[in-house]
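Class prep. Write one:
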Amino acid sequence: MRVIAGEFRSRRLKSLPGLNTRPTPDRLRETLFNVLASRIAGCVFVDVYAGTGAVGIEALSRGARRAIFIEKSRAAVDVIRENLSSLGLPSRAEVLNSQAATVLERTRADIAFLDPPYEMSREYEVSMAALDRRETPLTIVQHSSRFTPPEAYGNLQRYRGIRQGDNCLSFYQRRIIEK
């Protein structure tokens, strides 16, 4: 696995052995950040269910001011910290070893990337509710092509979807509520 573009382009990232994490494929990360290109510079990016941290690190490489990594696996947190250290990024990152819903309630970000294990579909609902309460402007959900997330989670409305093989990205933004 490697960083696709930006300041750390082509740098290798450490990953976890075994099948306990499902890293976002390089091609899908490239597509994601091509879509986000105009919004990433200077933003605070939260990588939820971060695994190896590849998505949040890609955001930092492409100009995000800060990244927050949320991961409950201790082994994965260690890998994220190693990857950040190898790139000299610890000062621009915060790594939280916790259940996602627990810390999302007190995390503020401009862009959230949510990628729970595909079999844990309840995690989408719980995490999206927390992001809606925090009024996160843009949330991207990675999910299996066999799962169709709702059109809206509270005030977060889906406005775009991308499919690559078995992986899909659904883009949600806050609805403008007319008064």
